[in-house]
Amino acid sequence: MTSTTDPLKTSDSLATSLPVANFLSFFAIAAVEFSVPFVAVDALGANATIVALLGICRFAPQVLLAGPAARVVERFDQRIVMIGSELLRVAAFALAALGLAFASGVAIGIFCLANIALACGSVLTAVSTQVLVPQTFADEALPRIYARLGMAESSADAAAPFVTGLGLAALGLAPTFGAAAALALAACGLLARIPRVRVPKGATTGADAREPDPSGKDPANGARPRKSTLRAGLAVNFRTPAIRTISFWSLSYNFGQSVIEAVLLIALLDTTPLSAATYGVIRSCSVLFAVLGSYVAERLPPTLRSGWGTSLFGCGAVGAYTVIGLGAYVGGGGGLLLVLAGFVLDEFCSGVVLVRVQTFRARAITDVERPMATASYRAANLTAVPAGLAIGGVAGILLSSATLLLGIGLLMVVPAVLIWSRAVRESEPVTA
């Protein structure tokens, strides 16, 4: 593997500072994601169209700019990219803090710009992290690093809305966003420790590229270079049976989950004794199991620290939505308990399988191909989310919410069977 740094020398300090920076960054992001729509509705009287526009500005750039973001990661060293993306977040927080100083129309425009800046920072960080980790850490340390990063992100997502709500009530908008900016700046200080890792040059990507070496080494230096494109990166995600199956599973998971999210609350309010407090407890408690899943991922028995673990917990993550669909259809207090069990199962298994999938992709994709492969994989999965929401919204008009939820939950058995394939189970050997 071509790298500008020795993994065994740099991993110790970075193994601590990178997850801490990840926590600070995601905490700040979650704080603003919670605050902007709340303030837009509560203080500026925004309607559903405005809220949707804010959401589009937050996520659409991550799809539309996936290719340019990957080229930035290919061109510059990862310290510059990671710090630059964090500074984009600082700018976003500063913009959002100034929003209420203007008339409502201008303020909404400023919030949109802040969300666009957040989106640009998010896609750069996501691609750069997947380039940085495999080149900086020893192969045997990858599950541990991805587990720590997963724990940091899930912990931030769980804590930020609660803390931000208290901050908005006690301090107001500008101080809360100022605190988020301070957290992002603190993350910049930690990210300054990142080694100047660059994407190596000179390998092929695309349909005529060589199959990746399981060890993660790059193709021979004599290979003819090809232009790096998002299309070529997407092809990498479907090149071998194992990575193709995992990619289909991931797309199915995100699409099906989004269809369910479109009608879930309506169905639960119709069929179960759900209250706002109960729903909040269910969602908050279940997120804590994502943290637990990430923690457990690197401590699994040897048999499950392999393709078998990817298959087992991948089945559990999508199969959980069958349980949720059954709970909504059954209704009542018993149905609500099934829904809670489904959410807990989903978050726990997702926490584990995310670590397994990231580790597999780090080993299966070459350093040269990784930026475009990561950007295209992420763009495809982000596209599946609004597509699923749209399908769920339309189908929810034609069918009863509980029936639709049960139907989609049963269909989620298909990706569960898919990821149980031999190609995935045997994708990584069992190690002692």
Which SSEs are present, and which pair or pack?
Elements (H helix, E strand, L loop, with lengths): L6 H36 L5 H17 L1 H10 L2 H21 L5 H33 L5 H29 L2 H19 L38 H7 L4 H31 L4 H22 L9 H24 L1 H33 L5 H29 L2 H11 L1 H7 L2 H4 L7
Characterise this structure.
The chain is mostly helical and 432 residues long. 77% of the residues lie in helices and 0% in strands. The chain contains 16 helices and no strands. It has helices at 7-42, 48-64, 66-75, 78-98, 104-136, 142-170, 173-191, 230-236, 241-271, 276-297, 307-330, 332-364, 370-398, 401-411, 413-419, 422-425. Helix 3 (66-75) packs antiparallel against helix 13 and helix 9 (241-271) packs antiparallel against helix 14 (401-411). It is globular. The model is unreliable at 1-9 and 203-225 (pLDDT under 50).
